[in-house]
Amino acid sequence: MALVAQAKQLFLDAFGHPPTLVVSAPGRVNLIGEHTDYNEGFVLPLCIERCTLIAARKTAGSKCKVTSSSEGAGRVFDFVGDASLQKAADWTNYMRGVVFQYLPDLPGGCAGFEAAVVTTVPLGGGLSSSASLEVATATMLEALYELRVEPLVKALRCQKCEHDFCATPCGIMDQFISACGKAGHALLIDCRKPYPTEHVPLDDEGLQIVIANSNVKHSLSGSEYPDRVRQCKEACAAMRSSGHPGVRFLRDATLEQLASVKALDAVVARRATHGISEDQRTLQAREALKARDYARVGQLMLESHRSLRDDYEVSTPELDALVGIAMAVDGVYGSRVNGGGFGG
């Protein structure tokens, strides 16, 4: 409730009157299945208590005014909420892009609101602060305009925001778990349409998931993320050219098919090795969780970290050190880098 009060106070300070509603959306941690969603593979995330709250009020016209406790030092940012909406050079793109996706559902094709954003999800910490803000924005619009939107549709709209307004060609996982997660469960997501899911119980009271922050803030707006997406596509194209026409995405491939490709760039081969093997680990982790075989889950997490470190090259010395420290503690089953990498 303290966070709700903080959001209401931020709104009051910025706009001079109280909000009419407060909505929230959780961050997430991914147990296993990293950099697989844009390869139409499998992921196994869960919601966390850290979340993004938005206090809001609908206004007449098409002016959107937003403020955040984390960005801009209390400054109010404004943008037009109609078809002329454009990208900006700041954090509001995560809200602008969602507004743009919802315009066809809104009266007159325009949105007008005041909003104050408060979050406990660390920014750039690998816990999907961006997806949490996007899903919270979508939930805000649905509440303000009394819209009924299926959670999957909401997640896809938020993903489209990330692609078009934030220059990150992400998969579906982050938005999907924030919109569709269930308490006491991880969510196995098949990232191929129609995106079937399975809630996997994760409610053992003797089990704790600890999230440690390396305090290295990551940013995926540079070339690192798009480069890896491109390299995965290159590997699939090479396998198709080598007699495996069914390999549309790494999800369709085997390590044997990858090994059959002659003269494949070594870096591209390593990227593909991670994508293929990570799908296998994720499905195995699902079965181990259902059997409450936490030692096996931990082993798979460690294998995932080594693959992300060596084949996908998204870890950092700080993250590697945290994994080593964790594994030296009695009772720890497994540890690994979480999120896109490069920090967090």
TrEMBL record:
Residues 97-182 form the GHMP kinase N-terminal domain. Residues 10-58 form the Galactokinase N-terminal domain. GO terms for molecular function: ATP binding; galactokinase activity; metal ion binding. The keyword Magnesium applies. InterPro entries: Galactokinase (IPR000705), Galactokinase_CS (IPR019741), GalKase_N (IPR019539), GHMP_kinase_C_dom (IPR013750), GHMP_kinase_C_sf (IPR036554), GHMP_kinase_N_dom (IPR006204), GHMP_knse_ATP-bd_CS (IPR006203), Mevalonate/galactokinase (IPR006206). Keywords: ATP-binding, Carbohydrate metabolism, Cytoplasm, Kinase, Magnesium, Metal-binding, Nucleotide-binding, Transferase. One of its GO terms (cellular component) is cytosol. SUPFAM superfamilies: GHMP Kinase, C-terminal domain, Ribosomal protein S5 domain 2-like. Gene3D superfamilies: 3.30.230.10, GHMP kinase, C-terminal domain (3.30.70.890). It comes from the Eukaryota. Residues 285-344 form the GHMP kinase C-terminal domain. Belongs to the GHMP kinase family. GalK subfamily. PANTHER family: GALACTOKINASE-RELATED, MEVALONATE KINASE/GALACTOKINASE. This is Galactokinase. The lineage of its organism: Eukaryota, Haptista, Haptophyta, Prymnesiophyceae, Coccolithales.
